[in-house]
Structures are given as C-alpha cells and as structure tokens.
Design brief:
alpha/beta, two-stranded antiparallel ribbon, 10 strands, binds zinc ion
C-alpha cells in the first residue's frame, strides 16, 4: 500500500498569506536547559500550510472547522493534473478534463506544486486557482471537498466569489496541498483538521492512499 503525505511541513520559512503572521514555534521548556521535557508553543494563523477553510472564514454567522462533515474529509478522491499552460481553472478548463458525472472529492495538481520543491520561497500572488465558473461546474458534479496546491482555492486578487459559492454550498476547501510527487488518478483521502472550536480554518494533516 502506497501512502502519499501531501501535507506541507509547518516551519518558520514556509510562505504565509500576505498580512498573516509568520509561523512561529518557540521552545518554552528545554531539556538542555535543565527542564524535565521539551515543550513547544505555536503561533500562526489557521490558514498556514496545509489547512481547511470553514464556512465562517468568509460567511459571518455560519459554522467553524469543528462542525465540518467528516464524510467529506475521508473517502475516494480524484487527483486531476492540469498542464502548466493553465493559469486559471475555469469552466472551459474543466470541460477538457472529462470529469465523471459524480466527483465528491477532487484535488487539482497544477504548476503550483513545483513551488513546494522549494518550500521556503516567497509568497506567489500569481498562483493557479479556481474562478467562479469552475466552482459552479464542480457543484454540478456533487463535489464535497476541493483541494488546491497553493494557499487559496480562489485567485489572489478576487477571493470572494469562489469562496462564497463553495463555502455557502457546504463544500470543504482544502488549501496548500503538495501534489508534486503524486501521479494523477484515484486515491483515498484522509484529511483531518485540528478540532478548533468555531475556528475559520485549521491545519490538516492530509494523506492519500493508493487504491
Ligand atoms: Zn484558508
């Protein structure tokens, strides 16, 4: 059984969304200083690294990550690879892909994944993401989880339409997966976000298991 860990390693040099705090980890207790144990404190935005978005990230008064449906987070998933010529995932791009009638979980492998071969790169604003037309097509296919290989499902300059449509429909958005080593095809996904009360997002260790 082959398992792919598609999670980014959380480390201070990982790029974060502009304006979000850098990933900070501090050893509060240190064995080398005479403490009985090592204890680390974390400080970062919940949208750092591989993470999910909950509806309340964009839609006030809705629910947080602790209420996300587990049946969306675990199950069969399709990894679709798009050519490097694709800068924006639109309905037209998806029309070339020949999606099955029902696709409950889908991950998009784009040229973004090459960026994770150098995790300490500067944040890229020109990453590949989905526009509103692509979101509509995926909803027609019954999607429950969408994963992308950079830090937002929507283009940098225009986040709201895609997020609003998908989060409003209850779709789990998985952002910041590294698909560099993953061939396109069918897998089982296990995406388990940290259970933070009412939070708008959470880091999510995510693996794919070959079927
Ligand atoms: Zn996010």
């Amino acid at each position: 059984m082959k398992i792919y860990d598609i999670s980014l390693t959380l480390a201070p040099e990982l790029p974060v969304w502009p304006g979000d705090p850098k990933i900070f980890m501090e050893r509060l207790q240190k064995i080398e200083d005479g403490d009985a144990v090592n204890v680390t404190r974390l400080d970062f935005a919940v949208h750092a690294g591989t993470h999910v978005d909950a509806p309340v990230h964009w839609l006030a008064g809705t629910y947080g990550v602790d209420q996300l449906p587990l049946d969306a987070l675990v199950g069969p998933v399709l990894v679709v690879e798009l050519p490097d010529s694709v800068d924006l995932i639109t309905a037209d791009v998806l029309a070339q892909v020949n999606l099955p009638v029902i696709v409950e979980r889908i991950l998009f492998k784009t040229k973004n994944s090459a960026l994770w071969t150098k995790p300490e790169h500067e944040f890229q604003t020109g990453f590949v993401a989905l526009d509103e037309s692509a979101a509509r097509v995926l909803l027609e296919h019954g999607v429950k989880l969408i994963g992308v290989d950079y830090l937002s499902v929507a283009p940098f300059s225009n986040g709201r339409p895609t997020h609003e449509l998908l989060l409003g429909a209850g779709v789990v958005l998985l952002e910041g997966v590294n698909l560099w080593e993953v061939p396109p095809g069918n897998y089982e996904i296990y995406c388990l976000p940290v259970k933070l009360a009412g939070a708008d997002g959470a880091p999510a260790r995510t693996i794919l298991v070959e079927r």
